[in-house]
Amino acid sequence: MLTRWDRSRCFVIAEAGVNHNGDIAVAKRLIDAAKDAGADAVKFQTWITELIVTEDSASADYQQQNTGKQSQYELLKALELSHDQFIQLKDYAHQVGIWFLSTPDEEVSAEFLLSNGMELIKVGSGELTNLPFLDFLARKRLPMIVSTGMATMQEVESAVTTIQEAGTIDLSLLHCVSNYPADPADCNLRAMATMRKEFGLPVGYSDHTMGNEICLAAVALGATIIEKHLTLDRTMDGPDHGCSSEPAEFAELVKGIRDIESAMGDGVKQPVSCELATRKVVRKEIVAKRDMRIGEILQISDLTLKRGNGEGLGSDQFENVIGKCVIEAIPENALVLPSKLSVT
Fold this sequence. Notes:
15% strand; TIM Barrel; 8-stranded parallel β-sheet; 13 helices
């Protein structure tokens, strides 16, 4: 179970979402694109329209702008895939070699996904305050990832409490700004640290900004999960394409995440092996300003600091050699070697 979730590195979810536009062929191409970009998982959204929205419910402003559809029912119905199609997508993702996930928006779809082998439950921001649904999902005792867009800390606390009291311990939170696209100035990435400290849980980031910079900053700030929308073409018709990454950009994101993880290191301040040769030739060493004869006592005026070959005494030893006796002649402009000075 969960062999594809490597907890030692950032888990990257390519949010295909509804960017298939209701076309399973497009959905399969999104799976291919997610795999080629290096994502750990590709995620869709599963719902039955009649179970989540009334027929007269208005769509969000950004949805109307991107689709022209005034009714949420009309919009969602056009994007809805059948359960049989989701089985095809799951099988295709396994064939391609990427983890298949989908966010359920109601209990029927959740039961369907879980009965078909989904090992991880991803909850969207819209369901964060749907405590009965969270309780239902948490009783499955599977790992859960919960987005927290639009939420107050009190609402996040209520969701966490509900999930944990229902028996799910393996819980991760995603900080999120539910605007499409989101303005970087609204992203408040420090909220990740606030939730991490408050709840003692892994915290990641679900992104809706344009470009990769905010995601990369989130990883540098400790995000354990990054979720970002993926589209084949940002100019396609549909509610989410405009704020999604195209395949090449998503591949750059994954590369950037892996580079940042590598760059974080272990926190121990010490030179790395690639610096050692450079250190030898750029650090100053103690050099004689004049010919020094055997028996002379070194004075400040006799010495200077220059770059050498790494075999002499470093500049940090300058004070320690003052007053030492020369036991082997040192030519002008030569390195002052330990072997040419008295021990005391």
